[in-house]
User: Fold these one by one.
Assistant:
Number 1:
Amino acid sequence: MKVTMKQIAKEANVSVATVSHVINGTKHITEDKYNKIMQIIHKYNYKPNSTAKNLRQQKTKTAGMVVSSFPDSFITEMVYGVEERAREMGYNLLLVNTNEDKNYEEETINLLHSKMVDGIILSPTSNDIEYLNAFTDEDFPIVLVNRYNNIVQHAPKVTGDNVQTGYDATMHLLQHGHKKIGMIYGVSNVSTTDERIEGYKKALQQYNLPFNDSYFELGHATVSGGAAAAKSLLSRHSDITALFIQNDLMTIGAISQIKDLLLKIPDDIALIGFGDFASSSIIDPPVTNIVLPPDTIGKTAFDVLLNKINNPDYTKHIELPPSLITRQSCGCK
Amino acid sequence: MKVTMKQIAKEANVSVATVSHVINGTKHITEDKYNKIMQIIHKYNYKPNSTAKNLRQQKTKTAGMVVSSFPDSFITEMVYGVEERAREMGYNLLLVNTNEDKNYEEETINLLHSKMVDGIILSPTSNDIEYLNAFTDEDFPIVLVNRYNNIVQHAPKVTGDNVQTGYDATMHLLQHGHKKIGMIYGVSNVSTTDERIEGYKKALQQYNLPFNDSYFELGHATVSGGAAAAKSLLSRHSDITALFIQNDLMTIGAISQIKDLLLKIPDDIALIGFGDFASSSIIDPPVTNIVLPPDTIGKTAFDVLLNKINNPDYTKHIELPPSLITRQSCGCK
DNA sequence: CAAAGTTGGTAAAACGATTAACCAAAAGGA
DNA sequence: TCCTTTTGGTTAATCGTTTTACCAACTTTG
């Protein structure tokens, strides 16, 4: 049977209040009483019941994190960053993966809210997140991470600078002389994709090249999805000489497809992927990626959540800059 | 301000008990009262406070999952399986990554226990888990997954058949004519490694080959750790013609190292990795892996946890069989 | 020595639900 | 009609803590 504070108190011949004070150091207790209580606590390996504590204190020292997909290494590392910072700060993390299911996302937020987490870090599945306003309006702390949306007024945001990401990747390919650049992405109607497209356009404009959205291809964010997207895109536009791919798994799939078509990377098709996934350097040829720092984004998001919890007025959009890791797939070196 | 049941009751001119009965369907309530209460609930978007509910019911419909590492794709997919099944069953999952820190693992179990999760699925960081007995002795449900240990008597276990895994991989290489087979692993003193070594020995025995543990190399379970381990092992034993590597990241690192040494895969060094990681088929040459089904292991583990929660006497060790996915790196085809 | 602090400790009211026990009124049965 | 059930609803205890308010006993201080 689970031992409670009442039983500790009884055995030590003191009130529960005294036991509580000993545990929390909220009042000075004479040494002999203190020692006796401590000894009994250790004897039973007693740990206060957090549920009761949470109920009384109206806070849980638990944060929720809701992400839209998991196998993706970018998200995994972001979660890892959040985890690490949460731990440092003495928080637990309730992690839920919605698997890009919008309805489940909303359900989850409701659930976490009723579980009394102190706040939520959310990487939403789409731009369609007005429902969040019901929460932010009552000052329930929600931080948007990675993907965001200005519909939600009072939520702070931590994201990568995706316009710059799209711009830098595209510019790099343009500078290598490419003029017909295809883009493959795995999710539509999210800020990350939209902004990278915006950056892509901006780069093209700078080179006075026309923009044509049939050079974009949406696929499933999986290895096979990447292969299918590459196949479809390359058969539609045989003039494409370079590809910018938004996701690690799709990059792997696209490369496999390109090899199947007996095309050479980078000579026939140059390629830039996204995110510094583990096998990048080992694939033939090694893959050039544009990266945003998932770990830093995660840690920052948790810091921002803490700020938001302590100060409901906190509203800020922190954007982290991308960097390019050049290897051979883009034609460098 | 957050609305409570009391306020709903007041506005509907009924007792809190009635509201509770409406919400939980625990008693029949006349239609007009029912409607009125429901309407007020929707008006405020009221959700019962789970902390209070948990406290009263002495259960949380939340399970804990504690894993020892995260970037590893095997673990990620296992977590994914647990997540999915937990969701199906209406449970939340409190996921914690100990990052192979034994002390933190123990702390975490304590923490989760006091958070009143209904049970824990644990992939322990080492064999050193006697501390768990304190929990299982008081019938707190803990399921060991992936790695296990018979020191903990009353915990059910869900693992891969790692003896078979080691045996099958080694046999496959032996059948290809290899006699000097190196093995690289990332964690010591865990059942997975120990059992795979056991399987390795068994296969060697069957071929009447001598066993020598200097053909084993322990490294960090990372890309660079894999590279370093391969370098050290191959320089120690230039006679090695095949490698069996226990972890996806290390496999990637080892391949990169082998290429740096200007050795050919599979001609100079044949290679079998572990786990069907995404880039296996795209790496040059495509990597043969022996795999255990992480998703099934995860789902099964959750089912077993549920069994354990409902029946404290449940103690069973479920072992899932491996399968070999042959590609070119082992010399096949 | 009386008044004023200080100190160590306790009683009891929260926190927000669930649920056993109870009760009046309505319905059913003899 | 009177007695028994059923129905719809309420009261109050309970879960295991924290924390405010209070109190007695002891110390200081003027």
Note: The mean pLDDT of chain B is 92.
Number 2:
Amino acid sequence: MILRALRERDRVPVTVLAELTGCSEMTIRRDLDVLERDGCLRRVRGAAVNMLTGEETPFPLRARQQVEAKRRLGAAVAGMLDDGETVVLDSGTTTLEVARSLADRRLTVLPLSLHGADALRPAERVRLVLPGGDLRAGELTFVGPLTEYALNTMRFDTVVLGCCGLTVRDGVTAHDLVEAQVKKAAVAASARVIAVLDHAKLVRTAFARVCAVAEVDVVVTDRDAPADQVDQLRQAGVEVHCV
Amino acid sequence: MILRALRERDRVPVTVLAELTGCSEMTIRRDLDVLERDGCLRRVRGAAVNMLTGEETPFPLRARQQVEAKRRLGAAVAGMLDDGETVVLDSGTTTLEVARSLADRRLTVLPLSLHGADALRPAERVRLVLPGGDLRAGELTFVGPLTEYALNTMRFDTVVLGCCGLTVRDGVTAHDLVEAQVKKAAVAASARVIAVLDHAKLVRTAFARVCAVAEVDVVVTDRDAPADQVDQLRQAGVEVHCV
DNA sequence: TGATACGAACACAAAACGTGTTCGATGGGC
DNA sequence: GCCCATCGAACACGTTTTGTGTTCGTATCA
């Protein structure tokens, strides 16, 4: 409720949040503490302030959004992977749900974030290989030359790509340049590219270019995907699944 | 209590454990479930059986042993690291305690196990770089050519080495060949080698050789270390701390 | 086939958690 | 520099979760 209120206005007083939620101000303050620690908002005296200034929404906030839809996407992607495959699992909250759908599968997985590795740790039949590299603080993604070297020395059957934007015109795009570099290497190292993203990202273009639409084999998105975008993608030879 | 009982006898009936602990058999069974899942013992009908057959005790069991002593060792090693240093943090339960003592330090750390990475994740001022590689299931250590490549491309001020055995005659030894290979690379990449181990390991020699005593700069162990071993190490030019 | 061990299901107590209140400390605006 | 609003520590309370013991039907081994 707090995050929802904060999405509408940029600054919401503690008193208003207390009234809105029907609980005491003390409870609000405690919740604001947690949310601030997670990097979901900024606290000022008397109120919570939206911290979404730049491009990228912080991971813990994204992880709290549209959980059910992401779970469906994750299950759909998991269903496209065959047992025994070698898979690069990109970073992001949607691909994280893919990882969670892989618990009892037999695969070799190279996750591009520690979150992915954590999710796959209990999966006994999954062989985990980590790429290494600099660990970006919030996202816990691997970036840098070490990561790219690792991807360059291996070949994979499939890369499950999470992206910030995908259009026929601009291809796959990401917010961050160094992350895009890693994604690029992952695409180059993989025989099949599955991009997974919610419908909102199908009309969006982010800053850093990853690859052209021609390099994408499959797009998995939700049912709210705009029909014209889906048509354009299909005409461009991309297999599109709306789940 | 269960694990202690199992260290004395190799097979302890559920009824005996119930009597020993003063709780019901059902509770014992539930605890045995957990311990078996963690790989600390094996269950047979009517009893728990010690599973320590081979060389290496499983990680969750070791992590439960001598926690206080390890914590002291960890704090001592942490005190030897200067702010701003680049450090390789070896795998193992003792070095894990070193990681926990590094929470508010400013360092660049390359952990050789996921456990180490997890422990350092909340440390905001620690720059984490992971080596990558194959993830060994139980220990969660990085091994293989990828790990060695990463170590070969970097130089470090210090390596905090956890080892299974260390004697003047046989040098530093480990249980596993591929792990030893990684440790070897870590030693080669570091200007200073700090070995941390409890006193029992000072008279032990394991299977796989890591390096000679001459390559070790500092040994941190506990006060129960045998005096003659300590003397020998000092005569060999090693700085020994018993904490 | 019988005695023993097992685990699912329920009941119960203890601990942990979330919440609200009070109250002294702190901070920004006039 | 004062004052009022906000803050967080401390305590109290109800709820939830966890751990434990009991019962009882089922599975297992001699």
Note: Residues 25-37 of chain B form the longest helix (13 residues).
